[in-house]
Amino acid sequence: MTSFDVAKGFSKASVSAADASPSGGPSPSPSPAPPPPASPPPEFFQAAVANAGIPVISLSPSGTVSFWNLAAARLFARPDNIVLNKPFDLLIPAEFRSTASHALQRTLQQRGVNMYEMAFVPPGGKTPVHVGVTLSCVLDANNQCIGIMAWLRNITIRKELETNLQRTRHMASLGTLAAGVAHHFNNIVCGMNTMVEMAISTEDPAAMSRALKMSAEAASRIGYITQSLLAFTHHDECEVDYADLTEELLRFADAVEPTLKNKGIELDLDLQAKRVAAIPRHRFSQALQHLLQNAEESFGEVADKSRPRRITIRTMSQDDQIMLQFSDNGHGIPAEGLAQIFDPFYTTKGVQGGGCKSNPGLGLTLVHGVVIDMGGHIWADSVDGQGATINMLIPIVV
Predict the structure, then answer these.
(1) Domains defined along the chain, listed by start
(2) Most C-beta atoms within 10 A of its C-beta, which of 69, 140, 155, 347?
């Protein structure tokens, strides 16, 4: 009975809908749309900015402070009469003013958003406060910049965490370095002891000569590791012989090309950078030798005749820097090792890395040290099985 009543009710609803159709009679008028929500008055936004939880400062296009909220006043701990209608530079330490001025000019020119960071010690304070500043342009109806809003963030805690993380990584690197040095020196010294004991105990002059010769070779390996570590950690600026980057690359290519040709390796030069970039001749020459050795070893012992073996050295200008790329089309670097290739004693070819060569794993570490000492940046790109590229950004020193 209940199901029948429900069905009957649906039937009546269907008939009513038919009666309301155009063929059955006039349609009822539609319900009026709800009114749009009222926009908050301007006073609401003014109060929201004034009482916001983050510091906000309003600047004129010339950089004069026209307004700051309560959070900004608390951050800088200065009274209004010292800040309002004064240049924003008064709140910025001298060492950050150039950065702040450039960011302000870029914001005006681009009518966009720019960011920078600074640190200052508030009046009466003892520790610096680190602040991240975001500048955004305020545009009028004609798309003209009528002012700049500075949004500030207290990033002191983040900076402390970054410092602690950097210290932790530094200690971890020292541990890795110490372990690598101890491992190599222990292996070499144990071998030397064995050879010396053999030389002392034997009465065969030939065996004694071989044992002493092997001991001398082991001592030379210790000397190489020591000199490599010294070159990585310190160099005397007074003894640096500077040369032009392009000049040094041409000299290097001229010296190694005949040997590479005999090994069946092509050397391509693509030197597009025209400006002079000063590099330490001796140390940079050593870095190029390490890069070359690393590239040669990436081809393996057996040549793949279906693909010519090639090393490419390329330079190109990038603003006030020169990009130097040292590429090969060898086996590439495995993805899991890409982030470690510049670490001291990291190797996949030496005995420590499971290889069979006398390679302590300091070559790319020395290259990294040379580039960083010049104020540059270095990183690696690789596709496993297709080759690798060492990218170096070298600053142009005028």
Answers:
(1) 43-154 (3.30.450.20), 159-234 (1.10.287), 236-395 (3.30.565.10)
(2) 347
Q: Which residues, in sequence order, are bridge partners of residue 130?
A: 119
- Give the β-pairing of 265-271 and 278-280: unpaired
Rounded distance, CA 297 to CA 361, Å? 13
Q: What is the CA radius of gyration of the chain?
A: 35
CB 250 within 8 A of CB 293: no
Token pair in block for residue 350: 């030496």
Question: Cα–Cα–Cα angle for 334, 335, 340, nearest 5°?
Answer: 90
**pLDDT per residue as tens digits for the range 295-318:** 998 887 655 666 789 999 999 998
User: Does pTM surpass 0.90?
Assistant: no
- Which pairing describes strands 309-318 and 265-271: parallel, antiparallel, or unpaired? parallel
Selection from 193, 240, 230 nearest residue 212 by Cα: 193
